[in-house]
Amino acid sequence: GEAGEPLLDVEAVGVAFGGVKALSDVSFRLHRGEVLGLIGPNGAGKSTCFDVISGVNARHAGRVRLRGEPLAQARAAGGLARSFQHTRLLEDRTVLDNVMLGAFRRTRSGVLAAVFGRDAKDEARVAASARDCLARVGLDAHAQRLVETLSLGERRLVEVARALMADPEVLLLDEPAAGLRRADRERLVALIRALRAQGCTIVLVEHDMDIVMALATRVVVLDRGRLIADAAPAAVRRDPRVIEAYLGM
Ligand code: ADP
Ligand code: MG
């Protein structure tokens, strides 16, 4: 698209689960090169927002455009990947297998191809790429471990590595640092900085405010499904509505 056009345009998005309005009239834009912090108390609607943007939830009001195109069309062309807050990994498979499956999760036929054999050259290429993604999150020494033996923090890093397999232009990270030890947190912060430097645009849901403040170029705050702030990190930190939302937790 043209310069200045938002990469992602979320317009008047609403989601209801029965009587619960998980999102109400939420609008914001994401521009190339940003690291957007998406924060708010538990239940604010952050993961639901990721479900809408990543196409997991198609039953929503409003519209989402990626590179100016309706989401369904844009997604078919790739370029957007996410990690899940509640990890979705195959417990009895290795770390490497789980990351390799990230290359095939986009289409149903891709998953079938992954299960029913590809040629050896293709498989070697995907494995090399998966090892590279594991190295980027610091898990290269753990490629052959079964996921069921991993700590929560390690599982989250596998989720991130799997998302990286898509070589995404937009990466949505849902609480990637939760449960991580200090050294892994620092590694994650460095990884996010490196991804941004490589041209990746990131939306980060994170409860650790030190991480949000260190990384975010802008912060959007949700509270009970509504957007209550969209500003620079320092301004959001001082915003009385934001302080009240957190005190009311
Ligand atoms: P956050 O990620 O900010 O903690 P969520 O997006 O997970 O919040 O949840 C927002 C609201 O929607 C909460 O009230 C939650 O209970 C509700 N919710 C989320 N997913 C579902 C679902 N699949 N069915 C019913 N209610 C849901
Ligand atoms: Mg959540």
In short:
The chain has helices at residues 46-53, 71-76, 95-101, 108-115, 120-136, 152-164, 182-197, 209-215, 233-238, 240-247; strands at 8-17, 20-30, 35-39, 61-66, 69-70, 80-82, 170-174, 201-205, 218-223, 226-231.
What does this 3D model show about the protein?
- This protein has helices at residues 46-53, 71-76, 95-101, 108-115, 120-136, 152-164, 182-197, 209-215, 233-238, 240-247; strands spanning 8-17, 20-30, 35-39, 61-66, 69-70, 80-82, 170-174, 201-205, 218-223, 226-231.
- With 249 residues, it is of the alpha/beta class.
- It has two domains: 1-79 and 168-249, P-loop containing nucleotide triphosphate hydrolases (Rossmann fold); 88-166, no CATH class.
- A six-stranded mixed beta sheet has the order 6-7-8-3-9-10, sandwiched between helices. A four-stranded antiparallel beta sheet has the order 2-1-4-5.
- Helix 5 crosses helix 6.
- The protein is globular.
- 37% of the residues are buried.
- The structure holds adenosine-5'-diphosphate (ADP) and magnesium ion.
Task: Identify the notable features of this structure and list them briefly.
six-stranded mixed beta sheet; 249 residues; binds magnesium ion; 10 strands; alpha/beta; binds adenosine-5'-diphosphate; 10 helices; Rossmann fold; ATP-binding cassette domain-containing protein
